[in-house]
Amino acid sequence: MTSIPDNTDISFDEANLHFENGLAKVKVNDYLGAIEDFNRSIELNTRFFKAFSERGFVKFKLHDENGAIEDCNISLAIESIHARGYHVRGISKYMLFDYLPALNDLNKAIELAPDNANSYYCRGLTYNRIGYYDTALADFSKMLELEPNNQWAFLNRGASYYELKIYPMALVDYNEGIRLDPTNVISVYNRGLVNDRMKNYPDALKDYGRAIELGDTAAKVYLNRGIVKESTDDNPGAIADYNQAIRIDPKYIKAHLRRISLTFKLKDWKGCIAYCTKAIKIDSIADEVHAIRGNSKAHMGNYDGAIRDCSKAINLNPEDYWAYSIRGTAKKFAGDTIGAEIDYKRADELRPKTVNTVKTNVNRKWVN
């Protein structure tokens, strides 16, 4: 049970003065100074519930969510119909990934203060986190009724539309958010994702490029731009972006896999083998990478190497029908016709019609 201080040595005027000073310091981000004033305010009036909730807010800003919750607990024990206490406690729980209790607090905050736009916004964020995108849309829309020019509400409502795959509406919201702040890199990048999904590739490329100009150098930006370039047959540009993503994050396996896939598609067997080897050093349990390297070796006539790689892939994933297919072809050209037939049969058991596909391709010495 929350303990409420019972200091009876109260100086209301001085306590209020420190409280107002604390609020002023919060506005200029002087959080440590604000804490000192709220502390003094509470010393002078131990039942000053607003001072507890505002001190809780400052603790939230300083990433002390547990401290914020403790202060709000005291504030609400003193005054149970205090919307600010519920709001601050709710957003603190949100930051601790305690989403359902956060919703309970934000619901209460909105019940007590239905015109507080920020509570709708924070509740919308929480609904987004737990996958209630339709409900989140309603909260962001309500916030925009109360604050029509809030770029963050447009950004997050756009994110809800995106998750619901309502891409045209997401695009409208991101456009509006960017109109309000053209330098908001999150909005620009997210609009790139939407344009990408809508196959508006020139616009997607512009957005990803602009996001990079604005300072978003995350590996995922280069990866996604590379995927768009690959979709528009700019293969050298795609490889360059995949390379940059890997420079930024050498263990970014998604970028490694995209680069491997593209070099294989381009029949750059030597390059594909090199890239596979690098990827295997990062994720040795990626059976498909071993299979692709084996396939590339088969293309180059290194059937023993192909068999070794495909055998490794099969050890990692005994149901990898493609690895059986490739190994069967490699065995065929290495002169092991019996072994080849065994692999073809196993591939057929795992994936119907695979044997026929493999056998019609054996004269090409590789399997697609």
Provide structural commentary.
This protein is mostly helical and 368 residues long. It has four domains: 1-114, Tetratricopeptide repeat domain (Serine Threonine Protein Phosphatase 5, Tetratricopeptide repeat, Alpha Horseshoe); 143-216, Tetratricopeptide repeat domain (Serine Threonine Protein Phosphatase 5, Tetratricopeptide repeat), CATH 1.25.40; 217-266, no CATH class; 272-368, Tetratricopeptide repeat domain (Serine Threonine Protein Phosphatase 5, Tetratricopeptide repeat, Alpha Horseshoe). Helix content is 76%, strand content 0%. It has helices at residues 12-27, 31-44, 49-61, 65-78, 83-95, 99-112, 117-129, 133-146, 151-163, 167-180, 185-197, 201-213, 219-231, 235-248, 253-265, 269-282, 287-299, 303-316, 321-334, 337-350, 354-361. The protein is elongated and about 95 Å long. Mean pLDDT is 92; it is low at 354-368.
